[in-house]
Amino acid sequence: MAARIERVVTFGVIGVGRPGLPPEGIELDNNVWIVGDDEQVLIIDAAHDADAIVQAVGEREVLGLLLTHGHEDHINVAVATAQALDTHIYLHPSDLFLWQETYSETLPDFELTDGASFMVAGTDITTVHTPGHTPGSVCFVAAGIDTVFSGDTLFQGGPGATRWDYSSFPQIVESIRTRLFALPQMTAVNPGHGGSTSIADEQPALEEWLARGW
């Protein structure tokens, strides 16, 4: 039996007191994805509410906590979640500088690299480096269940934001075009925020994204 996918939507506030943002921060909802079966799971991202993630996992073994990138809203309960579930945290090293904005004294346990694979419930989850939103953004491809977990690289309606100095719109488009649009058309796209989509639904809009510039 192939792994199944569960979505936990969490809510929180980020950026409190940070320059360029409202003093009270910004409210966000995030998708936390749990992939596995009744015995073992992988968790993708850890946002806002560790208790909700722990409750969703239940008594199952957690083989790892995989982070799509280092932005606060995707990692802000990573350490608490990993400690509660006795598991390891994986992050691409190019986003360590963002991790350190949230965690000044703790490091992820392991570095993610392009092509790194994880097996859960008989399903292979492969890491694909997709820079652009952040330098270390990655997506996780589960080919056996026709799914990609796209973090903030690809959403329903277009690429993730590239408004920061370390971001690049041309780079995120290239990542999507060469890495994600190379996946089968039937592939479901499960992003870090909002509803799911598919490669087939998003690929025809590429020229529109290029024309609008975001």
Give a description of the structure:
By secondary structure, the protein is of the alpha/beta class. It has helices at 50-57, 72-75, 78-85, 96-102, 169-180, 199-202, 206-212, and strands at residues 4-14, 26-36, 40-44, 61-66, 89-91, 110-111, 117-120, 123-129, 138-142, 147-151, 154-155, 158-159, 188-191, 197-198. The chain has a 6-stranded mixed sheet. A 6-stranded mixed sheet has the order 7-8-9-10-13-14. A hairpin with a 3-residue loop joins strand 2 (26-36) and strand 3. The chain is globular and about 50 Å long. The relative contact order is 0.14.
Question: How do the strands and helices of this protein lay out in sequence?
Answer:
Elements: E1 4-14, E2 26-36, E3 40-44, H1 50-57, E4 61-66, H2 72-75, H3 78-85, E5 89-91, H4 96-102, E6 110-111, E7 117-120, E8 123-129, E9 138-142, E10 147-151, E11 154-155, E12 158-159, H5 169-180, E13 188-191, E14 197-198, H6 199-202, H7 206-212
Parallel strand pairs: 3-4, 4-5, 5-6, 10-13
Antiparallel strand pairs: 1-2, 2-3, 7-8, 8-9, 9-10, 11-12, 13-14
Helix pairs in contact: 1-3
Protein name: MBL fold metallo-hydrolase
Organism: Leucobacter coleopterorum
Domain Metallo-beta-lactamase: 29-193
Flag low-confidence runs: none
Helical fraction? 10-25%
Rg to the nearest angstrom? 16 Å
| CATH class group | Alpha Beta
- Which strand order do you get reading across the main beta sheet? 1-2-3-4-5-6
Shape: globular
Instruction: Give helix and strand order, one letter per element, not per position.
Output: EEEHEHHEHEEEEEEEHEEHH
Compute the separation of the termini in Å.
40 Å
CATH architecture: 4-Layer Sandwich
Strand proportion, as a percent range, falls in 25-35%
Query: What is the mean predicted local confidence, pLDDT?
Result: 97
How many strand segments? Answer: 14
